[in-house]
Amino acid sequence: MFGGGGMNPRKMKQMMKQMMKQMGIDVTELDAEEVVIKTGDEELVFSDAQVTRMDAQGQETYQIVGEPETRELGAGDDGGDESVESVESAEAADAIPADDVAIVAQRAGVPEDEAREALEAEDGDLAAAISRLE
Hints:
3-stranded antiparallel beta sheet, 134 residues, 5 helices
């Protein structure tokens, strides 16, 4: 019914990119050397991954394709990567995106500081924050 049976993969990729652009989604391939995902007790390390960034209405989404290695938490730390630490602390300080605050403030008809407080109280859940304020 819906197969890409005889379609050229390159042409298929080009069509998908064009469709996404028409929907307002910007797709960018990143040249990543390594991707590390830290969980509570381990790290997933993608050494040769394909990373795609999709930007839709200001919301960035990353897709990682590859086979990860699993290692114990902290096993790959060399203690000298201050740039990662500063990015993590910056993200923690600004955990609620400004776009989310603006959306909640507009939908609930409240000032942005109230919207931010509601989002923080609801762990960033937009719908729950709006419900809290209405």
